[in-house]
Amino acid sequence: MSPQSPVVTVAVIDDHPVVAAGIAAWYAVADPPVRLLAAGTDISAALHGPGRDADVVVLDLQPSEVGADFGTLRELVTQGRNVIVYTVLDSEDTALTALDLGAVGYLTKAEGAHHLVAATHAAARQLPFTPPAQAGAPGSARRPVRPTLARREIDVLRAWFQCESKALVAQRLNISVRTVNTYLDRVRIKYANAGRPASTKAHLVARAVQDGLVSLDEL
């Protein structure tokens, strides 16, 4: 989403056309506005045609014989897309796995228009969104995979979330931009080693919120 265009754009991937139509209707009356660029039953809706330019991808996570199928989510995250999982799968473990893989938000289809629209605006700004139904999931003690970050790494991370550029982070902390990059690289390596890769700023924000390093009110 560019500063010149306040309209958030979305691509929807869902097996059921009626769901996509319902989401489109919700977005049509959203304030601030949301525009649906494309909808389809597979990843091509987000990779080709108008959908490739969408700010946010709303993904219906499909069940498989061994649980949820995370293949499409992995591919979208690898390509740097901001993904909201919107699914019938009401499972804390599934939600945590999706967030660990890089989803910016996770909502069940029991969540209404208000939460999906709010999550969409948050994702367009590369911020995580946790609806009330999933509020307990990110802090679950059953996922002891939080990496140990040094105090200075946390300081740089929090400053980066609150600044528009790494140059401003460097100025605020009285260090060089190169040093800022070094600290952020270290943080990414630690998350990758913990099995929770964070290749983009949005993913790092999501990890920090999940691990209690920063609150949404501070962003």
From TrEMBL:
Keywords assigned by UniProt, alphabetized: DNA-binding, Phosphoprotein
Pfam families per record: GerE (PF00196), Response_reg (PF00072)
SMART domains hit by this protein: HTH_LUXR, REC
Organism for this UniProt entry: Streptomyces nanshensis
One BP term from GO: phosphorelay signal transduction system
Annotated positions of the 4-aspartylphosphate modification: 60
Response regulatory domain ranges (all copies): 9-124
Protein name: LuxR family transcriptional regulator
SUPFAM superfamilies: C-terminal effector domain of the bipartite response regulators, CheY-like
Signal sequence region: none
